[in-house]
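Thread: Newbie trying to understand structure tokens

Hi all, I'm a second-year student working on a class project, and my supervisor (Dr. K.) asked me to get a predicted structure for one chain before our next meeting. I've only ever worked with sequences, so writing a 3D structure as a token string is new to me. If someone could post the tokens and maybe explain what I'm looking at, I'd be very grateful. Here's the chain:
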Amino acid sequence: MKSFLHSEWINYELGNPGPLAQAVHFWQIRPSHIFVRYLNPEESLRYEKIAHEEAKISYCSAQGGLRKIVSAYMDCLPEAVVMRRGRRGKPYVPGAPQFNLSHSEGMIIAAFSSSPVGLDVESARRTVQAEGIARKFFFDDEIRRLERADASMKSLTFLRYWVCKEAIVKLSGDGIYHGLRYAQVDLSTDGRSHGAYKGRKVWLNELRPSQELVAALASWQPLQAKGFFRI
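---
Reply by user tm_fold:
Sure, no problem. This is what the structure looks like when written as tokens:
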């Protein structure tokens, strides 16, 4: 899977988006209050209690947008989609494709597949104390590679590691607190990095949803991108 840019997104209209065997579909959810119509009563109550307008829109777009997308695969009304959560909080819908969601810089991205996936998106402009954080959470070989990176590339190199690690942890369903120390990454130069989690091989694909974002998809098996949809 090659890196992709914002211009490659296509507007989703109607119907089933297509098969997902050994494939992944990426979805961009454009923040809008329109998605509030798909929230369940508990989510609607939480939505009304959010004071910050941007956070309010982001919440209803993520929750309602996910329900809208799931309904396209299940051929049902969005209101009929019932979200569940795993033991560490990873959402799923019984009988629906596997999915994962992340957002940054006002862009909400979801990945859907027939097998488990983990997705993380971060701002490419994010400033971090790269080496200090790395010494706390990275493996020795990852720290050495980060230290060797040119000063101009150090922040981006760190972010590449970070989105890959978060994607792996989200794939596992264990959560950052329980899983980050087990997520190992071997960065490549072509966007097809490799990883491991508790001794299990992980396939990683690094993405650029837009010029301002870096992202990574993690899966237990190789997946091919078959669609970049926008709602």
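A couple of things are worth pointing out once you decode it. The first helix runs from residue 41 to 49. The chain has a mean pLDDT of 92. Feel free to ask follow-ups in this thread.
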